[in-house]
Backbone:
C-alpha cells in the first residue's frame, strides 16, 4: 500500500455523516425557495412571522448546514 492509498483510507475512516435537524420554519422556507427560487429578507420575515434577527439566524443556520446559499446580505445589496 502506498502513501496515497493510506491517506484515502484514513480520510474515509474519519468521514462521518452529519444529521441535519430541519425545523418547521426551515421546511416552510425550503418550500418557498422551491416554488420561487429566491427570497429577500422582507419575504422571510413575513413568511415566518418572526423578527428580523431571528429570521437571519435561521437563514445562517441553514446556510451552515448546506441547505441554502445566502447571496448579497447587507445594506449595500438592498
Residues:
Amino acid at each position: 500500500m502506498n502513501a496515497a492509498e493510506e491517506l484515502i483510507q484514513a480520510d474515509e475512516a474519519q468521514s462521518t455523516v452529519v444529521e441535519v435537524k430541519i425545523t418547521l420554519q426551515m421546511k416552510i422556507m425550503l418550500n418557498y425557495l422551491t416554488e420561487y427560487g429566491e427570497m429577500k429578507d422582507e419575504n422571510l420575515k413575513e413568511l415566518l412571522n418572526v423578527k428580523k434577527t431571528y429570521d437571519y439566524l435561521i437563514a445562517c443556520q441553514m446556510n451552515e448546514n448546506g441547505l441554502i446559499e445566502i447571496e448579497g446580505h447587507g445594506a449595500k445589496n438592498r
Notes: The chain has four helices and no strands. The chain has a mean pLDDT of 79. The first helix runs from residue 3 to 14.
